[in-house]
Write a sequence for this structure.
């Protein structure tokens, strides 16, 4: 291969090197893109006239997309639920409701993660919140540390998959697919993984009860009336908010942006209803939402620059030629692409993989012929997007750079070692890989709900 043909490959190596230096990802993406643009100019494969197209592509495409307005409002919604104590009250209620089940406390944590996933797509907030609230209690009840940490980390990362996921909003924009289609497609896979976690917890708790001791009976309300009031006050409101946000999108009453606004307003009203809303809390939520949103949009800008130069250097054609040279057929190509994304998840965050890899891999999938396995060409890209989303959930759990593991270690009690956290996530990553395989083998797991409600 000539140096010109190697440029796209060298771009990825340069990106990996500079990301590992710890420099901000947004600046690394943009810097590598611009640097290789000038290198391409020196080699006569990238003209100077293309550089002004980069800001036009950023502000005329990415920044003008109204769907992305939903992202800061979903961030605000999740942060408000965290800071106002709504999530803490919900976890306490779930503990009471599941205390008679084997591994009831781990059950409640998984259910809590599922509910949080349906209210926010902020993985860091979910993992930190549940670690602070649940891990000390689980340790106090003599839970096996790897089981406790694995349960919290895995259930906390469900937010990347279960709607309204920020990642699905970004994917829909990159692939030109309606957000509602991806939201509907991710519901069943997300709930399936949650059920897998619950079955695993139940099985290991029955097989080895000492790993997950039950809660004492004296914890909780003294009468059925008090329990009913607790459920009505702490469980029904957030569930109603979930139904309001997702139901309005699925029913076609509201766009994702409008539903995100309803969710943000609803979370604020819940905080006010619980008497947890004050100026300090509101200010903190706004600041955190602005910082998180600014970080995400900064990465959008950098990734747009990187992907534009990458395509101008014919990087997409290089990957297509590489895949064709493998000669493994459509299923082999799909497995290779999933394996590449899985391995990248060991080293990169989901947003970098999504913004850089997804636009390159999606055209390859559209060229493949799976026969009648995926009925309807219109659902090929949504099916692939859900496969990538399930795959990327593992990126938060797989060492050495699993961000959920670092979030947890940062706020966990000192006696919890990183080795115990690594040990705890192994069975949950295995369950996610099984789920990924099932969706590959049976596409209707992801496509049944969109077909029923949209066709």
């Amino acid at each position: 291969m000539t140096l010109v043909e190697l440029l796209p490959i060298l771009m990825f190596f340069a990106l990996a090197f500079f990301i590992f230096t710890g420099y901000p990802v947004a600046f690394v993406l943009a810097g590598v893109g611009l640097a290789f643009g000038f290198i391409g100019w020196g080699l006569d494969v990238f003209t100077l006239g293309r550089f002004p197209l980069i800001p036009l592509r950023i502000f005329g495409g990415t920044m003008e997309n109204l769907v992305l307005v939903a992202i800061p409002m979903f961030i605000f919604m999740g942060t408000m639920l965290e800071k106002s104590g709504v999530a803490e009250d919900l976890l306490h209620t779930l503990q009471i409701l599941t205390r008679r089940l084997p591994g009831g406390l781990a059950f409640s944590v998984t259910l809590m993660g599922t509910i949080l996933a349906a209210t926010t797509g902020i993985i860091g907030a979910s993992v930190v919140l549940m670690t602070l609230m649940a891990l000390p209690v689980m340790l106090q009840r003599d839970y096996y540390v790897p089981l406790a940490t694995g349960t919290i980390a895995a259930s906390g990362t469900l937010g990347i998959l279960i709607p309204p996921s920020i990642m699905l909003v970004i994917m829909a924009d990159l692939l030109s697919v309606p957000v509602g289609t991806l939201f509907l497609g991710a519901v069943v896979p997300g709930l399936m993984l949650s059920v897998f976690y619950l079955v695993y917890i139940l099985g290991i708790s029955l097989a080895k009860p000492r790993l997950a001791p039950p809660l004492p009976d004296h914890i909780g309300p003294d009468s059925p009336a008090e329990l009913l009031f607790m459920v009505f006050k702490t469980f029904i409101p957030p569930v109603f908010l979930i139904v309001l946000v997702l139901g309005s999108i699925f029913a076609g009453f509201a766009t994702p942006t409008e539903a995100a606004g309803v969710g943000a307003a609803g979370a604020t009203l819940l905080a006010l209803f619980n008497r947890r809303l004050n100026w300090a809390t509101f200010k903190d939520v706004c600041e955190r939402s602005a910082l998180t949103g600014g970080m995400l949009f900064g990465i959008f800008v950098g990734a747009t620059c990187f992907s534009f130069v990458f395509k101008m250097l014919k990087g997409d054609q290089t990957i297509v030629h590489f895949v064709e040279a493998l000669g493994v057929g459509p299923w082999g190509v799909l497995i290779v692409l999933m394996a590449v994304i899985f391995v990248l998840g060991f080293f990169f965050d989901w947003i970098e993989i999504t913004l850089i890899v997804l636009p390159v891999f999606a055209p390859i999938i559209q060229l493949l012929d799976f026969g009648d396995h995926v009925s309807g060409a219109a659902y090929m890209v949504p099916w692939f997007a859900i496969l990538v989303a399930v795959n990327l959930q593992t990126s938060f759990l797989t060492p050495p750079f699993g961000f959920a593991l670092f979030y947890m270690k940062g706020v966990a009690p000192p006696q919890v070692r990183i080795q115990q956290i690594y040990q705890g996530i192994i069975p949950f990553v295995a369950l996610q890989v099984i789920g990924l395989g099932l969706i590959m083998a049976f596409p209707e797991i992801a496509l049944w709900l969109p077909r029923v409600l949209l066709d």
In short: Residues 39 and 46 are 8 Å apart (CA to CA). The first helix runs from residue 3 to 20. DSSP finds 21 helices and no strands in the chain. The two ends are 47 Å apart (CA to CA).
